[in-house]
Amino acid sequence: MGAGPTPRPTQPWDGKVQVLGDGSTSETGPQPKQPPAEKLKPGEKPPQFVVFSWDGALEGDDHLFSHFREVAKESNAQMTFFLSGMYLLPNSKRYLYHPPQHPVGTAAIDFPTDAHIRDTVEQLRQAWLDGDEIGTHFNGHFCGPKGGGDWSTAEWQSEIQQDYSFVDNWKTNTGFSDIAPLPFDYQKELVGGRAPCLEGQKTLLPAAKALGWRYDASSPGDFQIWPAKTGGIWNFPLQELPYPKQNFQVLSMDFNFLANQSGGNPQGDPSKYAGWQKEAKDGYRNGFERVYNGSRAPLFIGNHFESWNGGIYMKAVEDVMRDVCKRDGVRCVSFKELADWMDAQDPKVLAKLRQLDPGQIPDWTSIVK
Fold first, then answer.
1. 272-310: buried (b, 16+ CB within 10 Å) or exposed (e) per residue?
2. Range(s) of the domain holding residue 255
3. Compositional bias (Pro residues) spans (predicted)?
4. Count of structural domains, the chain
């Protein structure tokens, strides 16, 4: 990877050539694929926003992180990666993690290998340069008793500060001297996250608001309606989508299809994989078509870099991304980009949008004035 680390630009890339710390220049930087956020014009139909987000953001042995970066490039999509900060903390330094209400150095997920840290750092660098967002999935992924739902705001503050530390100090903690620093300032980059198991939003929000975060994606689910602010920041929940051929809704995340199909067993009956994959794909498409041809409320799809049930959920999401992101009027964006667009709108127009049912086709001239 070269003779040594290259200096990081002193400011975020602005589309111009930059002078680096050693006097050299660089023309690389975030490459947004979507139009800038602009206020809707009178009578204009809103874009159909779709946000693909990933919990954990560890580049594992199956290289799903890097694969979906390529899929997004081919689909004209940008995404949000919710990084678990401890995925940049080596197992040998696990004692640096002091999780709320749990013993020092423990976590509900595995600490990464050195090889995984190296791969993840490279993927984070490339994702940011692609124009994708790096959010947070916090650290130890504790759920249930003594998990995020039981934490106080002060305990969430501790979890967040440790997340900052693990990402900011990954070079010190790993001792790796042959990898360049990350090309972004994490404490400036980070403007939102998703809590593990979607637990603890009530006490998390005051901590997020105090840090100037712009959104939270930890709400456990709602109908496909236009978002509103909760606790002073945008609330971007997972959503309830029409389950194929069934009279119920399923949460817009791979794990929830897994729960309905194989009872949460990640290695269910292989003879059912093809049917389950089609169900997941159709479920996401059902949700998309309902709003694309109706209220145009944003669609939020959450995923994990996991090969559950033979990787069928990854394949379903890939098919959906390739299908919808290049359609007319569709913008596949990050949560940060969606927050930019929401902030640019007339609050009165947003209030009207929130009154629409997902499949409702309104007279846009009466909504956007």
1. ebeebbebbbbbbbebbebbbebbbbbbbbbbbbbbbbb
2. 41-367
3. 1-10
4. 1
Residue 261 in domain: yes
Is residue 149 a contact partner of residue 205, using CB atoms and an 8 Å limit?
A: no
Residues 6+ apart with CB under 8 A from 122: 59, 179
Dihedral sign of CA atoms 144, 145, 151, 155 in order: negative
- pTM, to two decimals: 0.90
| Residue positions counted in the chain | 369
Are 349 and 45 in contact by the 8 Å Cβ rule? The answer is no
Is 33 a domain residue? no
pLDDT truncated to tens, each residue of the chain (369 aa)?
Answer: 333 222 223 233 233 333 333 333 344 567 677 788 899 999 999 999 999 999 999 887 789 999 999 999 999 999 999 999 999 999 999 999 999 999 999 999 999 999 999 999 999 999 999 999 999 999 999 999 999 999 999 999 999 999 999 999 999 999 999 999 999 999 999 999 999 999 999 999 999 999 999 999 999 877 899 999 999 999 999 999 988 877 788 889 999 999 999 999 999 999 999 999 999 999 999 999 999 999 999 999 999 999 999 999 999 999 999 999 999 999 999 999 999 999 999 999 999 999 999 999 999 999 998
Buried-exposed string 322-351: b where 16+ CB fall within 10 A, e elsewhere? eebbeeeebbbbbbbbbbbbbeebeeebbe
Domain containing residue 330: CATH number: 3.20.20.370
Question: Kind and range of the H or E element at 349?
Answer: helix 347-353
Which of 12, 16, 213, 25 is CA-nearest to residue 129?
A: 12
Token digits of residue 267? 């290695």
**Does some domain include residue 69?**
yes
In-domain check, residue 36: no
